[in-house]
Protein 1
Amino acid sequence: MTKQDIQKIKLLLATPKHIVIIPHKNPDGDAMGSTLGLYHFLKKFNHYTTVIAPNDYPNFLKWIPGNNTVLIHDYQTDTCNNLIKKADIIFTLDFNAFHRTGNMETILEQSKAIKILIDHHQEPHNYAEFMFSDVTMSSTCEMIYHFIDMLGDTNLIDKNIASCLYLGIMTDTGSFRFPCTTSTTHRIIANLIEKGADSAYIHNQVYDTNSYDRLQLLGCALNNLKVIPEFRTAYISLSQDELNTYNFKKGDTEGVVNYGLSLENIVFAAIFIEDTQEDIIKISLRSKGNFSVNDFSRAHFNGGGHINAAGGRSELSLNDTIKNFISILPSYSKALNDE
Ligand code: 5GP
Ligand code: MN
């Protein structure tokens, strides 16, 4: 994003506008933190601002300041579509292509609003008038901090904004331990704490609010963990029956894929989760080092993301998806063993 872009955006925001802010489908901490962080910021300028999430998000994110103002496109489709049609400006945060919003893809394609993309995923599509894309960033929340800084407005960051941005930086960096965490990330986190973000409270809300069922489901997932040492790969599967047994709720499988990656000598981890409602297998992929799960997912599982974290899907059965996955690994043998 150039200085000229920032000047133009400043001019745009100088008078109250109808603004819609949109995260990706199945929003995570970074998606909700960045959209609501920006929401609280824009509210200070008296814009008519609404966050519209494509679908619902997990309970461990429902404490976020402004949570009760979020509209869910799946539940309030007409209201949301009208707001999108009326919008002067649409911010799209934490995703790189309209199809990442699921059912909102068409209405976004048709929208005449000025689009502003802020995102850290690879290969952003070219739909936005203003694009702040940086794949080296830890999180979209970190980018919202930089965006506010470029506007010269960090003095306006209050406890609400700080809490939202802290949340997304925390979740996307695995609590400040993934390689995308830089000294700048830590400086921003320090500033956010000074502005009122309560780090202990936020960690507690996100990580220490497990249900008994969720831990039992984790036990089941760990029982299903398989290791393929020759390809330094570990994978977990969860069938719909297993999810039902433990009363699966949105977010219950968040982070489970990382257990595979925590094994010694493992550089590639996957989880395959059956979803009979959508009739797909949802796949999460994680890696260490230079092995790009973004490329792997784009090539084989209709997805993408970042070098070390990506998602994808398969329309085969759970068993066939896993067989397919295993059959692909030999062609990556060198890349996986060179790590
Ligand atoms: P997760 O495995 O947690 O669902 O996703 C990991 C990362 O990959 C996230 O940054 C997420 O936004 C991205 N991602 C997940 N699924 C997809 C997908 O289907 N397509 C693309 N392009 N990115 C995805
Ligand atoms: Mn993110």
Protein 2
Amino acid sequence: MVQAQLMQERIRQTLLVVDDRPDNLESMEALLDGGDWLLRCVDSGEAALQCLLEEDVGLVLLDVQMPHMDGFEVARLMRGNPRTRFTPIIFVSAIAQSEDAVLKGYARGAVDFMLKPFDPKVLRRKIHALLEHERHRHELLQLTRQLDGARAFNASVLDNAAEGIMVVGEDGLIRFANPTMAQMLCCSVAELQGSAMLTHLLAPHSDGEWQQSEFYRHWQRNQSYRLHDASLRTRGGECVPVALSCSPLPGEQRAMVVLALDMSVVRNLHAQLESLAVTDALTGLLNRRGFQQALEAAIARTERSGQGLAVLYLDLDGFKRINDSLGHDTGDLLLRRVAEQLKACLRTYDALARMGGDEFIAIFDSLGHPEDAARVAEKLIEQVSVRQSLNGIEVTVGASVGIACYPECGQTVDGLLRAADMAMYEAKRAGRQQYRFFSPEMNGRARSRLMLEESMRSAIEQEDFFLVYQPQIHLDSGRLRGFEALLRWQHPVAGTVAPNVFIPLLEETRLINRLGDWIFRKGIEQRIGMSQYFADDLVLSLNVSPVQFGMPQLVDDLQRILEQQQLNPAQLEVEVTEGALMQDLETTREQLRQLRLLGVKIAIDDFGTGYSSLAYLRHFELDTLKIDRLFIANMLDSPRDAAVVSTIIDLGRNLGLEVIAEGVETLAQRDWLVEHRCPIMQGFLVAPGLAAADAQRFPAQLDWEALPLRSKPAH
Ligand code: C2E
Ligand code: CA
Ligand code: CA
């Protein structure tokens, strides 16, 4: 493009001839016609200046002697104007000039003098040469302008780039740095120039000789080098995280260009994200992931220091009740409050995490003795258990704490966590508001529990569970009242596992909720299967565990299954233990009310073993009392137990409740019960739990005489 422009200018080059005498002009015109230029002839100095303003003139042939304005004056004015300052002038004169005049002419900017008459050939050559010269000057001017433009452009790119840019020579010294680079290092560009690049980096990238550095090695191999995690050291000694990219410049430069990208914002963001990922949004404590990282780090530290390490697992007692009754906002408020209280008990460097729900965990580093952990546990329990006001409502929660020490109770994060969790359960079992250390026997139990839990999960999937049915008999007539469904687990290796072993586990692991649904479904299905063999009032009793009883959707679930299978709710009885009723008075009352509304009967299981059995009778509407097996087993020998049994029988009669004596094994026991007018019995004397098929064949009316007499039958 530049070339095309130059070509055009070659065509446009104008030769201006100035002479006041028309004949001179004419002869000049004739002489110069047909040349490689555009000829313009004017007859005065003024006209010449006018033409010079309007056109690009390559060369002026200027007559010296002219009226008004002579050639010298024209030349002087031309030189005063930037546009024509360098336009070449040849003075033409008819008379020989004095040396003075000639010198004056040159001083005014003439490039040559010609005396008339002159040799046209010489004149044309001269003109040619001068125009050529002028063209070159023009081209040069243009190139210079372009170069200046390009340089200014490059400079503005470098000056305005947001990245720091340096050129570093093969000697490791900075040859060039842009303002951003200087800004990043808090110094001036001049200070940077000539300094060694490595002195501006932080370890490890600043270590060693330049020639051994990766920058130099890559440059030598003519390769680019990128460093994502470098840090610059500002003049004030501060650290600026940067990403560096270094690329070799073309060979003869013997240098590299280094770009530095400020990563402060990105790295801050990273740090923020990381901290978000490890903190619990509600309390600001660590979350499960954060806890894991903290414990890993603490274990590593303890390995080195040889000091003690303990993990405290804290679970709130009674949180669920508050959360359910006062709403989640209040629950959240309580959790935040507790988090604050716990924090206040700990040293600033102890890690504290919320593991979800109402479970908290603290890590004690550099512990002197395990007793220190116990002391803290006591403090934590005490702190949390104060009465507090939430949105104007007074509440009290408690806390149970399990403690596991490293490395005795577990060597890994998971191991320690499990141990502390176990110990916490132990504390809860022992009656809450306590702490417990994890002990070796707990360890053994933990292992078998784990195995059991694992096989229970697969048992649910493979349906290794089944129900057996134990008959309940009216003592006066021998008529069948109904069956209690009892759960059995047929373990592929261990054989039949008793419910006292696995039901508590199912409860702890909450697997009972999954299995509970199955029990309802299966029991009701098999009760329907029995319909054709028995009267309509045959009752099916289903056991409901405390956890199941505490589930808000219990009634809905039951109703759905009853409707699906079309069983009359009156044919169903739900057995609840005193333990289940103990949870929370209001919720329990509501749950029982809903169940009765549904139309199912309610029995209290193991009646008489709890602390406030009589209170339940006052608060709750019930249908049936089941006298605990232990009273029956002992009543013939112990007058106290006998008194309890007969009292319960009287109580039931007076309150219009059915009473069932459980665990009747002998005829003597039965006779005693008949004598004391107990209405219903259940026990091995009649039958243990029977498989569904056997239960169907059970007589609707029992012939006592036909019963094989057993004093203590095998289970
Ligand atoms: P429970 O509800 O008190 O059940 C009665 C227990 O006494 C049953 O033990 C039964 O086999 C046993 N039994 C019955 N008659 C006699 C007897 O004459 N002598 C003796 N020594 N024992 C007798 P099992 O089946 O081992 O159940 C134990 C506990 O497991 C039950 O106590 C109940 O609390 C729980 N359970 C059983 N099945 C289920 C179930 O399907 N769901 C729930 N949630 N819990 C269940
Ligand atoms: Ca029962
Ligand atoms: Ca019972």
